[in-house]
């Protein structure tokens, strides 16, 4: 099996290290101070003014004179001439009376003209049009103002030598003889203007006229909506007119500078704009206070001549810059920015803005008077501010101006701020600027920055002020200065431009280079050297004498000198080099390369850190950017988020860097450390540093290659219909791809895997078009080999075999190709089952196999992948340990599930998800293939799948080492509790089946009715009996049978208890609803019903043991029949409790029968006979002495004597239960002999002897036949009716019938021994009756006072009983 590259983890670790390095470098560049950070003092005036022209902030690039043709037009001037700059379209606008000329200053000679107006043009502006108002060709609007009207013209920008085109829009608004002073427009097409009347207007325009709106109209910005309809001549002229307006679109704010130096602030977000004013008095007062009453803030010469907005992209806190006539810069912002120095006594509205800082102009003490002016005082009349760069026009005299320029000194600022943060010290930024002044020929009419050409896309606004960070992202910034003689182009020098010049200039000394390295720090300087060596395309051509040399060659003298500096100044940092008092002059440089702590462990050389910095800057245009963007949501079209030219530019820069490193790798490789033996602490630190730097270098080289190939791969996708390719990967992968950045794509396994999916999609697209994949594969391996590894090649070959199998018509060929593809696919499971998006490839291959009817192959592939991807079976351990979502083994588990899902899909295709019908041969063979895999986790998955599709019957047919354990787990669920015992029965394991059935019956896990529990117990007993040794109590299964039978017996008793509880609860509930009962009784019955219902529910919930049943239910509720049953089941030997239970049972039967109006003694006879038969012949629950005494006396008790009973009532019941006559005779006779205190006296003896006589007669009838009774009656001369009446019976006929119907079970033959015993007993009874005295005597027992009859009846009964006994004795003697 092909494995993942052995160094995959190491590669990912290196890429992670390189990625962190890039992030750290880019993050440090964000540490450049915010503009507000410099305003920690009220004013500042720190400048550096280099005397060397090669180091000045601006260099004069070229001068362009006005063409002669325009001078000829100027000679025709009658009234007025105006001019200005439109750098957006590469034009200078010039008006000569009513004519407008747009001069192409780039070529110096061509221009467009517009001469359709008949009024003098006083102002022109270029603005963006509103969307969907004009034709798409109209890219700008020219706003042309005359004293009478303002006209709008469309502008289509030509390219190269193609001139611009002007379009008549027929849109204009009247100005009412107001000269327009300034016009500004927003990006969304709004146009604002102000005139010499000081009023501020907005021009509204639309494509068509409306019902109540014109195609083009104007309205006053500050005022009510009625200003639409108020004529201008009725409006009041402003006392302090606005002379200039500027827009801050980032804050939706417009500022207006008035003639008296007030600044008006207009909020443009509402329908009616809010307005506030920064008063000139406040500005002067605060400026004087903050500048310590500087001479430049003299109130006699104070005047604000210009204002500029500072957008939020440049500063969140500083919003406005005002320029005074003396050259002071006044920075304004909101009140929240004034945390360092609260302002007091401000005559200012709460909304601001507030004066934050005063920047005093540079002095230029050494400047000649011809440049500075005779008075030494600036007279600024125009200015420009753009992203930190400040230009101002200083009036020398009426015919000439000087240009003042200032910009932040980026080297010391960047170096000091980052170094201080690294060392943990508190750093307060100081604003230091490089400044210069240069004389010009003529007066300045306008200044503007030329839109720059970014080398690799747009620059991140958050670092735009950090010149060192962006100097290679764009060409040198250039500025146009328009004078009355033409245009002068100035280019701002970047630090790298200065270094280039120093390297080219033969006059440059080592000291000059040392100053440069000191100014910008070693890391930044070394990074610039690397850029020069690599010939970065953003470098500017540098003039050296009269010779121009481009910097795009790495073999020129500049590259050699830069390499020498890199070697000389890029070595390891000297620990003894401490920060100087003036941190800006510290050569140690920025934090880049400085260790985090004061220790030198983990310290890199300057050139290595510079390499990291340079690489990070090359990658910045793409690093945090997304790879793709959606271009059409409906059609699902995507494209590269980054333009092709940007990707190509970045790739070329990376190529150049890699070429340099490849040929100069020894320059960055740490030298071997010569250490003592053993190495000391310092040597050990040096070794650790060298190892760390070597590893970092390796990581950066790897990242460099990865980025080059990654960009090549993206460009390849762009060229090969990216949308089609992306649409062929899974939806979730598409979503991931839309959100992924280049950083993630190039440095993480997630990105690498997405690239692999895209490679597969490209290959699949080729195969879908029936084209060979070799060409595409070769191309991908050539341009991005890391995205197309050997495993991919195996995968593509397997895919090719699969395609040939599908296209073949020969069955043998189909099978051969399919099996070969299976063999190859099994070598690359990691390509089939991707960690993030696994099911797609494996699912597709399995689907192809199913289409080929190669079902076993599909199952074999899926399950082989599962085992190969997790050879240690970590997934099983993950499941066993609880499947924690944070467990690192989750990945292996998810991969296995992917494989199992595909196996299930195959089985489903074969119909195994259907609960009906037998298996086909295909299905059977495929299932057998799956079951052969020794994969416990898969078997669990498969069994779950079969159960979920209603195929439990299949489980009972499966014979694997895993099925029994699985079925044990199934018993935890209600729906599958029966599978295990059914399986045991299926395999003839009746003992385990019995155990499982018994467990289910006992378990409270399942929602079973009590009857169902008894059924499970019954089945358990049956299975226990079926086991060969089940009936042997010496074996485990024999003991199990005994235990189950006892449980079943107790269970049946519990069922009776449950039924009794239910009946009792229903009776109590019925009684609680009887209206005739008093409320207290009904409430009591209701409460009792609730208690009984609770007992009923708890009792039927589970099987209970004897103790629980007795103490919880039976004993408290006096369930005597159940009590006796429990005594019987527990084999208790306690005559006292048994007697009490029988007495209680009989009393309860009596009470119920009496309450319900039935004959109690009849109910007792039936119930006692039935209950006794259940327990007989148990001498412990049905002891004969107890039964005889209890039943014999019960009819004659005081409370029961009113119910008549025939002789032999107790005898009949006991004999029906099963007691033999001989045992009954002995028990009754013992009552006579022992003279029990209950049976004392002649009355009691008479009753006992009557029942004994009955017992003897039925015994004789049983042994000698029923004719004996008739013979005896005949011998005594007594008819049958008379005998019955004498026998005491108002129920005599029924009793006689019962006697005649007695069974003969338990009867003994009257042998000589028995007859002798009976004869002796009868003699005792006769003597006892004959000697009895029947005079009234008190009864001292619980028996009835009339026991045996009335006083008059007793003697006759006794004589009759004696005769009968004598007849029986005579009969016995004849036996």
Automatic annotation (TrEMBL):
Molecular function via GO: structural constituent of nuclear pore
One GO CC term, this protein: nuclear pore inner ring
Top-rank taxon: Eukaryota
One Pfam family matching this protein: Nucleoporin_N
GO biological process, one term: RNA export from nucleus
Residues annotated as domain Nucleoporin Nup133/Nup155-like N-terminal: 64-487
Subcellular location field: Nucleus
Keywords: Nucleus, Transport
Residue ranges annotated for the Nucleoporin Nup133/Nup155-like C-terminal domain, each copy included: 606-1275
Keyword Repeat belongs to the record: no
Family to which the UniProt record says this protein belongs: Belongs to the non-repetitive/WGA-negative nucleoporin family.
PANTHER family attached to this UniProt entry: NUCLEAR PORE COMPLEX PROTEIN NUP155
Protein name as catalogued: Nucleoporin-domain-containing protein
């Amino acid at each position: 099996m092909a494995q993942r590259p052995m160094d995959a983890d190491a590669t990912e670790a290196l890429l992670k290290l390189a990625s962190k390095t890039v992030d750290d470098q880019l993050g440090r560049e964000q540490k450049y101070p915010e503009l507000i950070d410099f305003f920690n003092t009220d004013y500042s005036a720190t400048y550096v003014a280099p005397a060397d022209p090669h180091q000045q902030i601006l260099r004069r690039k070229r001068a362009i004179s006005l063409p002669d043709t325009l001078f000829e037009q100027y000679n025709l001037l009658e009234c007025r001439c105006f001019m200005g700059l439109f750098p957006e379209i590469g034009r200078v606008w010039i008006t000569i009376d009513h004519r407008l000329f747009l001069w192409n200053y780039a070529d110096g000679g061509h221009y467009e003209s517009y001469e359709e107006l008949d009024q003098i043009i006083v102002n022109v502006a270029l603005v963006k049009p509103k969307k969907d108002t004009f034709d798409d060709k109209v890219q700008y609007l020219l706003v042309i103002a005359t004293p009478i009207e303002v006209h709008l013209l469309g502008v289509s920008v030509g390219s190269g030598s193609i001139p611009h085109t002007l379009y008549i829009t027929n849109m204009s608004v009247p100005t009412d003889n107001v000269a327009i002073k300034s016009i500004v427009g927003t990006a969304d097409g709004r146009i604002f203007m102000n005139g010499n009347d000081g009023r501020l207007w907005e021009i509204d325009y639309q494509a068509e006229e409306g019902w109540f709106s014109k195609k083009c109209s104007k309205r006053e910005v500050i005022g009510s909506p009625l200003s639409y309809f108020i004529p201008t001549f009725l409006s009041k002229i402003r006392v302090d007119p606005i002379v200039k307006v500027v827009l801050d679109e980032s804050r939706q704010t417009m500022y207006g500078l008035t003639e008296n130096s007030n600044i008006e602030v207009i909020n443009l977000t509402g329908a009616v704009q809010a307005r506030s004013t920064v008063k000139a008095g406040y500005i002067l007062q605060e400026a004087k206070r903050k500048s310590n009453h500087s001479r430049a803030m003299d109130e006699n010469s104070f005047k604000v001549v210009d204002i500029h907005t500072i957008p939020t992209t440049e500063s969140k806190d500083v919003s406005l810059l005002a320029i005074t006539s003396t050259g002071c810069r006044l920075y304004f912002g909101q009140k929240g920015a004034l945390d360092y120095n609260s302002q007091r006594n401000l005559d200012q509205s709460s909304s601001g803005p507030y004066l934050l800082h005063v920047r005093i102009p540079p002095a230029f003490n050494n400047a000649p008077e011809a440049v500075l002016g005779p008075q030494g005082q600036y007279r600024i009349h125009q200015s420009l501010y753009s992203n930190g760069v400040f230009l101002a026009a200083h009036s020398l005299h009426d015919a000439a101006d000087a240009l003042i320029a200032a910009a932040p000194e980026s080297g010391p600022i960047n170096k000091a701020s980052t170094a201080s943060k690294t060392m943990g010290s508190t750093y307060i930024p100081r604003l230091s600027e490089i400044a210069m002044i240069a004389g010009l020929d003529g007066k300045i009419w306008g200044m503007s920055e030329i839109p720059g050409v970014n080398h690799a896309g747009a620059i991140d606004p958050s670092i735009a002020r950090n010149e060192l960070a962006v100097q290679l992202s764009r060409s040198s910034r250039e500025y146009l200065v328009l004078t009355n003689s033409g245009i002068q182009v100035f280019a701002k020098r970047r630090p790298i431009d200065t270094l280039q010049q120093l390297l080219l200039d033969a006059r440059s000394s080592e000291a000059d280079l040392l100053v440069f390295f000191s100014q910008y720090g070693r890391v930044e300087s070394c990074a610039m050297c690397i850029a020069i060596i690599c010939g970065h395309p953003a470098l500017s051509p540098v003039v050296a004498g009269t010779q121009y040399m481009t910097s795009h060659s790495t073999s020129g003298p500049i590259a050699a000198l830069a390499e020498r500096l890199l070697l000389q100044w890029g070595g390891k940092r000297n620990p003894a080099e401490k920060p100087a008092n003036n941190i800006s002059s510290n050569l140690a440089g920025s934090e880049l390369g400085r260790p985090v702590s004061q220790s030198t462990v983990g310290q890199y050389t300057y050139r290595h850190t510079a390499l990291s910095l340079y690489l990070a800057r090359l990658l910045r245009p793409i690093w945090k950017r997304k790879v793709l963007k959606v271009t059409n949501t409906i059609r699902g079209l995507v494209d590269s988020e980054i333009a092709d030219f940007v990707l190509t530019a970045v790739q070329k820069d990376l190529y150049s860097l890699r070429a340099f490193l490849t040929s100069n790798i020894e320059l960055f490789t740490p030298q071997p450390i010569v250490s003592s033996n053993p190495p000391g602490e310092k040597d050990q630190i040096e070794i650790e540093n060298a190892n760390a730097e070597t590893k970092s270098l390796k990581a950066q080289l790897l990242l460099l290659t990865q980025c080059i190939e990654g960009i090549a791969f993206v460009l390849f996708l762009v060229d090969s219909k990216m949308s089609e390719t992306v649409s062929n990967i899974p939806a979730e992968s598409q979503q991931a791809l839309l959100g992924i950045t280049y950083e993630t794509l190039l440095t993480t396994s997630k990105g690498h895997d997405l690239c692999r999916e895209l490679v597969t999609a490209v290959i699949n697209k080729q195969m879908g078009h029936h084209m060979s994949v070799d060409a595409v594969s070769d191309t991908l391996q050539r341009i991005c080999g890391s995205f197309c590894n050997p495993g991919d090649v195996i995968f593509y070959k397997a895919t090719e075999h699969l395609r040939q199998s599908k296209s073949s018509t020969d069955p043998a060929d189909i099978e051969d190709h399919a099996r070969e593809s299976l063999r190859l696919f099994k070598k690359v499971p990691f390509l089939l089952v991707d960690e993030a998006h696994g099911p797609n490839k494996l699912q597709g291959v399995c689907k192809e196999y199913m289409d080929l009817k190669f079902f076993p192959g599909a199952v074999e592939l899926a399950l082989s992948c599962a085992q190969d991807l997790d050879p240690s079976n970590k997934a099983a351990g993950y499941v066993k340990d609880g499947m924690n979502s944070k467990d690192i083994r989750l990945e292996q588990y998810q991969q296995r599930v992917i494989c199992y899902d595909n196996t299930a899909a195959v089985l489903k295709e074969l119909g195994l998800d259907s609960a009906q019908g037998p298996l086909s041969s295909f299905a059977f063979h495929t299932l057998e293939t799956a079951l052969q895999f020794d994969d416990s986790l898969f078997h669990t998955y498969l069994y779950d799948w079969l159960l979920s599709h209603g195929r439990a019957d299949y489980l009972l047919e499966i014979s694997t080492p895993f099925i029994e354990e699985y079925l044990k787990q199934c018993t935890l669920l209600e729906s599958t509790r029966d599978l295990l015992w059914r399986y045991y029965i299926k395999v003839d394991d009746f003992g385990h089946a019995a155990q499982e059935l018994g467990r289910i019956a006992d378990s409270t896990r399942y929602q079973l009715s009590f009857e169902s529990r008894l059924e499970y117990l019954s089945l358990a007993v049956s299975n226990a009996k079926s086991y060969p040794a089940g009936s042997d109590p010496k074996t485990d299964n024999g003991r199990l049978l005994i235990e189950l039978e006892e449980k079943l017996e107790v269970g049946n008793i519990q069922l009776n208890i449950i039924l009794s509880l239910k009946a009792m609860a229903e009776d109590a509930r019925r009684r609680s609803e009887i209206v005739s009962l008093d409320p207290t009784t009904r409430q009591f019955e209701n409460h009792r019903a609730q208690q009984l219902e609770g007992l009923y529910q708890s009792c039927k919930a589970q099987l209970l043991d004897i103790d629980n049943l007795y103490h919880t239910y039976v004993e408290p509720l006096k369930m005597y029949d159940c009590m006796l049953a429990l005594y019987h089941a527990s084999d208790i030997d306690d005559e006292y409790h048994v007697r009490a239970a029988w007495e209680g049972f009989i009393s309860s039967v009596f009470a119920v029968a009496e309450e319900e109006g039935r004959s109690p003694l009849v109910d007792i006879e039936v119930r006692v006979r039935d209950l006794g038969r259940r327990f007989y012949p148990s001498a412990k629950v049905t002891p004969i002495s107890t039964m005889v005494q209890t039943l014999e006396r019960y009819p004659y008790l005081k409370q029961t004597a009113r119910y008549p009973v025939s002789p032999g009532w107790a005898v009949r019941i006991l004999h029906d239960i099963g007691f033999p006559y001989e045992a009954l005779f002995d028990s009754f006779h013992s009552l006579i002999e022992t003279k029990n205190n209950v049976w004392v006296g002649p009355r009691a003896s008479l009753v006992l002897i009557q029942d004994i006589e009955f017992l003897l007669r039925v015994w004789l009838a049983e042994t000698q036949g029923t004719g004996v009774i008739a013979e005896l009656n005949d011998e005594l001369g007594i008819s049958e009716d008379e005998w019955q009446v004498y026998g005491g019976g108002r129920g005599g006929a029924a009793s006689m019938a019962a006697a005649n119907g007695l069974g003969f079970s338990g009867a003994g033959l009257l042998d000589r021994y028995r007859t002798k015993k009976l004869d002796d007993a009868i003699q005792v009874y006769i003597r006892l009756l004959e000697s009895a005295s029947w005079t009234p005597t008190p009864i001292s027992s619980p028996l009835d006072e009339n026991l045996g009859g009335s006083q008059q009846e007793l003697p006759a009964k006794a004589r009759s009983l004696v005769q009968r006994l004598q007849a029986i004795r005579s009969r016995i003697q004849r036996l």
